[in-house]
# Entry
Amino acid sequence: MTHAKTPHVVDARYMEPPGPFVETMEMLDTLKEGEKMLLLLFREPHPLYKVLRQNGHDYETELMPDGTYEILISR
Amino acid sequence: MQALLAFENAPPFAAPLRFFLTAPLFGVLAGLLIAFEGADVFASRWMPGALAATHLITVGFMLQVMLGALIQILPVVAGANLRQPLLIARLVHVGLSAGALMLAAGFLLGLPQLLGGGAVVLGMTVLAFLIVTAIALRGVPTTSPTIRGIKLSLFSLFAVVGLGIVMSLALAYGWPLPFSALTDLHAGWGLGGWAAVLLAAMAFVVVPMFQLTPGYPARSSWWFPIIMLAMLVVWSAALLLDLSVLARLGQLGAALAGIAFALQTMRLQAKRRRARPDATYRYWQLGLISSIFALFLLSTAALWPTAAELEGWTLVFGVLLVAGGFLPFITGMLYKIVPFLSWMHLQNTGQAKVPAPAMNKILAESGMHRQMLAYGLALILLLAAVFFPAWLARPAGLAFAVANGWLWWNLFSAIRRYRSHLADISRKLAAL
# Structure
């Protein structure tokens, strides 16, 4: 799946925990310097945010009208 | 490795667990009280037994689980970390349980001092909880409808407990207050502003997560807590200004907001991607249908006040909303949260070297399903007992006690299995 914001997308909207967390971490490992990935979820992943901050990743979250949180994460 | 890092946010399992294992015991107590008091409980909402049973359920069961769940979930859904969650849990659990018992005994025995004492213990406990929660939420931006809902529900918790303390002290010291109207408002802030807004805030996260439904649309999620609180403010102002039409408008607005939320949730559930309905899904269906009926009764009474004077109207409303709505929502969530937390803590203990057992090995679907049938029977009996109290009050109370005892047994068995798996994993790790 690709998205206008980036071709690297984890659509975790119908995934049970800890699927979204694990898949995001796996995709982050595959990104090259300067690339971004997008995580789609129906909730804000605060535990993931904490890990992202600890590991030095920037992220931006946008709540879409259908209830999807688009979380754009920099490598 | 990284999966373990996320675990740092989680409070110790013992923090929420004490609340989850105590709550059903208050349900048992409420059932036994109804069985012991018999038909008198259903004579009117003002009967000592009815007031005692109501508070055993709303404070002893509902508030108990809600505060325990908040201690667990604040870091996960709001990124707000409580300092010393286990210490807070211990203090709140003791204060809440003692306060609920004193309050219920005060109502039942007609001892205003005990009632006032219980209200003060509860008030101090809730105030302490609100202070530590406010400190944890300080600086947390309102980036989601869930965070907005939590913040506004905590304000409502302050309002409902404040009103409760004022009324109980007024009873103890004989202050003249409009008790009937204030009791309605107290229930409105408790069930609407606190319980329903917090439930919705949690539902925005857990319904899609555990039932694999689409997400709640953003706009209505942002507005639901605001509308509910606005309606309660209108209702409160109307009481101060002695404008009964305005008060009924507030009630109608709150009821319609609740119905809209329930219908929205049913629409999402109809689109779920989990093929087989489980106990949580069924409990939520029961809760949604009962709540819609209850709120329909409330709307009708707001538009046509004489309806509420019909025999059994208010009691049926209360049974439908609390025993038919909130308790099933909460039980349905407990049946997901307890196995999930057990699994998460086992997974973390196993350090990715020893796998945790599947969640259905910790709490089997069949046990939850049978308990739900027992609860459904208890609910039907409670509703029927409103109309045939002489025949059905005692069986309804006993059935309610049995269903809650069964819930406790299911949760307790899950924890026993969790502990046995924990010992097993530790042994295997030591042998590696």
